[in-house]
Design goal:
0% of the residues lie in helices and 50% in strands. It is mainly beta.
Length: 208
């Protein structure tokens, strides 16, 4: 056989992330994201995470296991503001990504009625980030409820309530609106880490 030659180019691989731009999240909310490498690992790779500010929190490091290219980690919103996370690993080009943390939202309540003409209706409140995406909460999160009139009342388990709580690691809570008297009412939802939300008007009809 004639001799042959081949050129081999060895380059430094670059870390990649599961999101582009800035990750948006609310205070007290979390999202799972990932960091990845372009080639399957033949040994575990430790990726170190460092923060520019304390607006968000993550583990100090994450390990991509042998035989894979990816590892997931959790970002938690700590306080309103912006943060930059630097990802670094031996033998790889690092990468920097932004995180934007702000007040959450609870608008867009599921099954909210314009008219309540039956005894009651079930509705669902979702924890949302500043962009309106549904997010999980890192600890039990309580919202105070204030009804503008005596036309209806919020209820859970057959009892009237003045607050509802999304459990830790959950993203929603369901409750009932019960008809009390003909008329109209709004419900105001408040929590220090969320924008105050005044519901659309509910018109109550057919009350006994």
């Amino acid at each position: 056989y004639d001799a042959g030659t081949v050129n081999v180019s060895v380059i430094t691989p670059t870390l990649s992330l599961g999101w582009g731009g800035s990750q948006v999240i609310g205070v007290g909310q979390w999202v799972d994201q990932y960091v990845t490498v372009p080639n399957t690992r033949t040994s575990p790779l430790t990726v170190n995470l460092t923060h520019l500010t304390s607006a968000s929190a993550t583990p100090a490091s994450a390990v991509i296991p042998n035989g894979t290219t990816i590892v997931y980690f959790r970002i938690t919103g700590v306080s309103a503001g912006t943060d930059s996370i630097t990802f670094a690993a031996a033998g790889h080009n690092g990468i920097v990504a932004g995180v934007s943390v702000g007040q959450g939202r609870v608008d867009g309540i599921g099954s909210w009625p314009g008219t309540l003409s039956t005894d009651s209706v079930q509705v669902t409140l979702y924890a949302r980030d500043p962009s309106g995406n549904v997010r999980n909460v890192s600890s039990a999160t309580t919202f105070n409820l204030s009804v503008s009139s005596g036309a209806l009342e919020p209820r859970i388990g057959g009892s009237a309530v003045t607050s509802v709580t999304i459990p830790a690691d959950g993203n929603q809570v369901s409750f009932w609106l019960r008809r009390l008297a003909n008329g109209s009412a709004t419900v105001t939802f408040t929590n220090a880490n969320y924008a105050t939300h005044v519901s659309p008007v509910v018109t109550v009809t057919g009350a006994p």
